[in-house]
Amino acid sequence: MTVTVFSFLMSILWCSVFTLLSCVLFRRKRVLVFFSVYALLFLMMSSLLRLIVSIEPPFVHIIRSTKVFPAVMAWLASPFPGLPAGGQALTMGNILLILWAAGSMYALWRFIYRERRFHRLMSGEKPSDDPRLLLAMEKIAGDRAKNISVIKTPLTDTPMIAGIIRPAIYLPDLPLADKDLYHVLAHEWAHYIHKDLWCKLVVRILCVIYWWNPFIYLLRNNIDEALEIKSDLYVTKRMAEEEKLAYLETILLLARSFTANAPAPSPTGIGFLSQSPEHPLKQRFHCVLNRQPPGRLQRAANGLLLLAMLVLFAFSYVFVIQPANNFPVEYENGEVFNLTSVETFLVPNEDGTYSLYINNAFTATINDISKEPFSTMKIIRLEE
């Protein structure tokens, strides 16, 4: 298995396809209720995995592009005017890599700065000793409640969980009733036991690396909303109808007190409500109120959906698009040739090198033909 620039481009393409598919399905309430949110979350995770695992397996089928890819590669290899570097002109590809690296460094700095600022802000806050809060946590988590701190602070206006190494639940300084306190803590505890903070960390790291890709932000928002719905369904799965309504009333209560004017949260934290002024509450309410015990048809449909996702994920590795031996090649003298002609072949020389002919005319001397595009070129031995 190898990693090439073309397998990397295919991973970006398929990640975008999976993201668009998950977005279309996730935005349809009927689909979200009929199919399990876990199935849709699996599709979103497949997008991330496809982006990370950019490989070409041994069985890959290469599809040769004769127009688009050669034109793109020719543009990337073309020199950028007016920017000399070490006696050689920088190519457009070099410039793009520099911009990519600079953008990733800035995104990483911004990520670390926001994370450190949040923890500095909360460093003076102590775990709460409120007996009502401790009793609610014991009821929810039992002996495991001691594994996570619960902090009540005026520095946030929405409940959240934050901290990869030492996770803590942060509660706003609001007069919550016992039932509201239980609902909030149960929701945040669900995030903790499902390791959702680690999922969010992976997404944020990919946002740092692929900051230029708009689909990664769409995927990030979809996953954030899916994690909230997943926790809602986990908390309410054994609740009666009246208890579900009480849980949704808790969400509304906190939404009314939400101002989004509190200090910026941790980039890897998960808030009970979105930092956006328009909370995606309709989907959460719809999923909680319309969730039914899965019947035979629904279980079969979810199984088929998961199977289709696995097949599509495997299919994404079946082929890779590459230029049809006609992408540009830069030689030692810095000159770039675009191999666009079908009349392109190699002639072996006595010293072990090869002469490159384009349109039956000698063009250059090639020292190594073990790599593309030369490895698949026709070799013609001239008669003496």
Element layout with pairings:
Blueprint: H1 5-26, H2 29-34, H3 37-52, E1 61-65, H4 68-77, E2 79-85, E3 88-91, H5 92-122, H6 131-141, E4 149-153, E5 160-162, E6 168-172, H7 178-193, H8 196-209, H9 214-236, H10 241-257, E7 270-271, H11 281-290, H12 296-315, E8 319-323, E9 328-330, E10 336-338, E11 344-348, E12 354-358, E13 361-366, E14 378-379
Parallel strand pairs: 1-8, 4-6, 11-14
Antiparallel strand pairs: 2-3, 5-6, 5-7, 9-10, 11-12, 12-13
Task: Give a brief outline of the structure.
The chain is α/β, with parallel strands linked by helices.
What does this structure look like?
The chain is α/β, with parallel strands linked by helices and 384 residues long. It has three domains: 1-77 and 292-329, no CATH class; 94-284, no CATH class; 341-379, no CATH class. Helices cover 51% and strands 16% of the residues. It has twelve helices and 14 strands. The protein has helices spanning 5-26, 29-34, 37-52, 68-77, 92-122, 131-141, 178-193, 196-209, 214-236, 241-257, 281-290, 296-315, and strands spanning 61-65, 79-85, 88-91, 149-153, 160-162, 168-172, 270-271, 319-323, 328-330, 336-338, 344-348, 354-358, 361-366, 378-379. Strands 4-6-5-7 form a four-stranded mixed sheet. Strands 13-12-11-14 form a four-stranded mixed sheet, with no helix packed on it. Strands 1-8 form a two-stranded parallel sheet. Strand 12 and strand 13 form a beta hairpin. It is elongated and about 90 Å long. The mean pLDDT is 80.
